[in-house]
Specification:
alpha+beta; 301 residues; 7 helices; 4-stranded mixed beta sheet; binds uridine-diphosphate-2(N-acetylglucosaminyl) butyric acid; 19 strands; 5-stranded antiparallel beta sheet
Length: 301
């Protein structure tokens, strides 16, 4: 979708930068995605004005964070993409509280806090993506998830058109799911973290990194796990048991390392990946009677 000159200049007046015809292939860890215009916001405080302008002009839009858990359609997209300010996201520690901007890199945040002797998030170190994305889906790994550490979140609430601060206790954080509204936009978070000496945190981080390197295809284009694990089970183990490692549709392929990672083994299209997802879901349903739910977020047109 193309933003016209008049809207572009009004966005510029709000401090936002407009880029035309951006390929979202370059912005996602799967290397899949179509073309659209992109708006880089310069400050959180301008978000309500920017959103009002887009609503007045009937311009459909979506926020893209780290692009590590999303599968985006190919071709010309019927919406624009917004980014939070990403240059030098704020990170600050006061006592056992960490104040982190949502656009910060999740792993960078874990390291930043570790260096200040705040732990509890060792398992999250290799999870790719932004802090905002991790908050929205309650990212987790190796027994850690971000939700339980959240004390306060500042967000843009589309329902009110305002910036609001919400207490962590008012949000439900479940397995890869939260009670945020789909159009809430995470802006900043206050985390409460257990004090731990840096060396100890580092040792925990090393263990998680080794486990991850041994089991996941880290050097291939993927969105992490494609499916959520069903209660008490492992999607990866079931797909593996069905002999589907290496199974492909076009260049979309079930990783031969971890069967719940689907990789772009060349120039996969979104429809290749969607067909692979449906094919595997159907085979698991047939063999185990279990309906796997997507973990990856699909942006279809
Ligand atoms: N397994 C297989 N074959 C495979 C993959 C796994 O047999 O191809 C077996 C493993 O041997 C193990 C069991 O399945 O006995 C579980 O595997 P793993 O430890 O890799 O955990 P997982 O349940 O597949 C979850 C998360 C990962 C997270 C790891 C480590 C989900 C959907 N996945 O994977 O998160 O990194 O645990 O905590 O919850 C993600 O969410 O994107 C993600 C990668």
């Amino acid at each position: 979708m193309r933003i016209n000159e008049s809207v572009s200049s009004r966005l510029k007046n709000l401090g936002a930068e407009v880029q035309h015809d951006v390929s979202l292939k370059e912005k996602t860890s799967l290397g899949i995605g179509g073309i659209t215009d992109e708006v880089l916001l310069r400050s959180y405080e301008t978000i309500p004005d920017v959103m009002r302008l887009l609503a007045d002009e009937s311009i459909p839009h979506r926020f893209l964070g780290g692009g590590t858990n999303v599968l985006i359609a190919d071709g010309e997209l019927p919406y624009i993409v917004l980014h939070l300010p990403t240059s030098q996201p704020g990170m600050r520690v006061e006592g056992t509280a960490a104040y982190i901007d949502a656009s910060a890199d999740l792993g960078g945040m874990v390291t930043f806090c570790a260096k200040r002797d705040l732990g509890g998030m060792e398992g999250l170190i290799g999870v790719p993506g932004s802090v905002g994305g991790a908050l929205r889906m309650n990212a987790g790994a190796y027994g850690t998830s971000i939700g339980p550490h959240v004390r306060e979140i500042e967000l843009y609430r589309a329902a009110s058109g305002k910036l609001e601060t919400v207490r962590g206790t008012d949000i439900h954080f479940d397995y890869r799911h939260t009670s945020f509204a789909p159009d809430d936009v995470m802006l900043r978070v206050k985390l409460e973290l257990p004090p731990k000496p840096f060396k100890e945190i580092l040792a925990g981080i090393k263990v998680c990194n080794e486990k991850r390197r041994a089991s996941q295809p880290l050097n291939q284009k993927s969105a992490g796990c494609i499916f959520k694990n069903p209660p008490g089970g492992s999607a990866g183990r079931m797909i593996d048991e069905l002999g589907l490692k290496g199974h492909r549709v076009g260049d979309a392929m079930v990783s031969d390392r971890h069967a719940n990672f689907f990789v772009n083994a060349g120039s996969a299209s979104c429809s290749d990946m969607l067909r692979l997802i449906e094919d595997v879901r159907e085979r698991v349903r047939g063999a185990y009677g279990i309906e796997l739910e997507n973990e990856v977020i699909v942006w279809q047109n």
